[in-house]
Amino acid sequence: MKLKTILCIAVLFTASINAQEAVKQDNTIDNQFRTLYKNSNNYQEYKVVKKKDYGVLHTNVLDSVKAFNTLLLNKNATINSQKSTIDKLEKENSDLSTKLTTSKTNENSISLFGILLTKSNYSILLFTIIFILIAGLVTFIYKFKNSNVITSEAKSNLEEVENEFNLFRKKSLEREQKLRRQLQDEIIKNRNN
What we know:
Elements: H1 2-26, H2 29-39, E1 41-43, E2 46-48, H3 51-107, E3 109-112, E4 115-118, H4 119-192
Antiparallel strand pairs: 1-2, 3-4
Helix pairs in contact: 2-3
């Protein structure tokens, strides 16, 4: 019993919804004009329309125009809102493009003493400086070794000269002592004579 009651209510509800949809579809302005034309009386070549039907049609047309105007205003407001959003997004896109370009430039370059160099130019400059420093170091080591060899030779030459000078001094001292002895011997000899 309950099932039958629920089933009847559902069928009536569905029929009511379908009837409302049919009325809405039939209630267009075009259908209302056709209905008015069909229901109007003929007088010679004219159609006579009831004032009540004309008033209803007029009200419906005004309501439809008002609804279309409201819809148009809403659509225009939506369009204007979307235009401002698009303008805002385009500006953000432009700003982001500028930031991206700046970021890529900064990523692909290195600042050295306030000068912005690309990474390849920086690498070339760095390896040139390293090469110059290595060449300078090799030159310094070469000159240092040459100077060290020359210094060692000079020291050994100095030692030889000092040794020769010491030998010469000893010999000179010995000669001088020998000569003094001889002189002393001669003086003693001459005194005794």
